[in-house]
Amino acid sequence: MQLAEVRFYYGSMLQAGLYPRYAAPRLVEALADSPVVLVHGPRQCGKTTLVQEVGARLGYEYLNFDDEVARAAAAADPSGFVDDLPERVTLDEVQRVPMLFAALKTAVDRARTPGRFLLTGSANVLLLPRLADSLAGRMAIERLHPLAQCELQGQVPGFLDALFGGGFKTRTSERLADQLAERIAAGGYPAALVRKRERRRAAWYRDYLEAIVQRDVRELARIRALDALPRLLSLAASQTARLFNVSKLAAPFQLSRPTIGDYLTLLERVFLVERLPPWHSNRLSRLVKRPKLHLGDTGLACALLGVDAEALVADRPLLGQLLETFVFQELRRQASWYEQALTFFHFRDKDGAEVDIVIERGSQALAGVEVKASATVTAKDFRGLRKLRAAAGRRFAGGVVLYDGEVSASFGEGLFAVPLRALWEIVEADS
Length: 431
Fold this sequence. Notes:
By secondary structure, this protein is α/β, with parallel strands linked by helices. It has helices at 3-15, 24-31, 47-58, 68-76, 78-83, 100-110, 149-153, 159-164, 178-186, 190-193, 198-220, 228-238, 246-250, 257-269, 298-305, 309-314, 316-335, 383-392, 422-425, and strands spanning 36-40, 61-64, 89-92, 117-121, 139-143, 171-172, 242-243, 273-276, 292-295, 342-348, 354-361, 365-371, 396-403, 407-410, 415-419. A 7-stranded mixed β-sheet has the order 6-14-15-13-12-11-10, sandwiched between helices. The chain has a 5-stranded parallel β-sheet with strand order 2-3-4-1-5, with helices on one face. Strands 7-9-8 form a 3-stranded antiparallel β-sheet, with helices on both faces. Helix 9 crosses helix 15 (298-305) and helix 12 packs across helix 15. It starts with a helix and ends in a 6-residue tail after the last helix.
């Protein structure tokens, strides 16, 4: 999406009282060449609003499987239900009727009309044990996240282009200071952000979690200790941006490590937590090969930990920990509509050198992002990035230390210190 387009789109969405979603052009593009398009992501991240807004422009009928009658009809006769659907239809919360996928496959194989079915799911339907068919080769998949900071600002960011395309210009900008903690605590869920008071936002997040556990997780699997899930999620929040350690997560519970591992997988399926895999290289043998754990949203993490922006400002270690997850999730959200596929990792060796986020663009380019909550950067802060650069060789496109300072500056050979706000305020060039 070009800058002129986004200005028009942002203005029209604001007039409608909605936040712009920069995944919209990707969704329209997928509908133009794929018989089935699935938009999946956590509940309340904006999937229904997005598909209704796009569907209204393209002439789609809408059906939601949260409706008991629609769900019962689809379960009773999947083939007949699909045969009776309109020519173009949106099926919302399709994970609730996994038996429908075989009938969708049959319908698509009879007539491969692009854009026939637009689906949404609040669980990763490709991992559901009852899924009858994966629709491989017939379905495009678009991931929708909670709102990115750049969507809140109404700017199409150029940070990823700068990271992979030659670096960052020397410039100055204001520190975020306490505003940074406020952004972290607010998170990115639209329904939470409309609540202006922090106490009310935290209450929304707690109610949201209760609903997810009692309904979505209960439907995905029979869990004998359902009450353990909220406590496990709170513990996961305390471990966000740290190496995944199932023993630490299992310690407070009278449950086995494999059971805790299974529960964590369930939380991943409903997009509440995410494991960030380690980056590997044949050039380095002393690499830590454990994934990192990240909460899906920092507003959710703050609600689980019982902290607000003021408490974050007072607790610098926790601020740094949540800031890393905040940056990771912002980059993941921007990557969801980026023109080229990006894959995310972390880097750490057994000598303690690390890079918080490693991003691969195909097999040709790799970049690193280190995150600091401090207002200053020194050459020592680039230790991990220098090791990553040596291991990546010619593939290394650039490395950045994001910090809460004022100046973007080069530290030589593709390494830069960049203020955090540049992550969403470096605007895509108009063409």
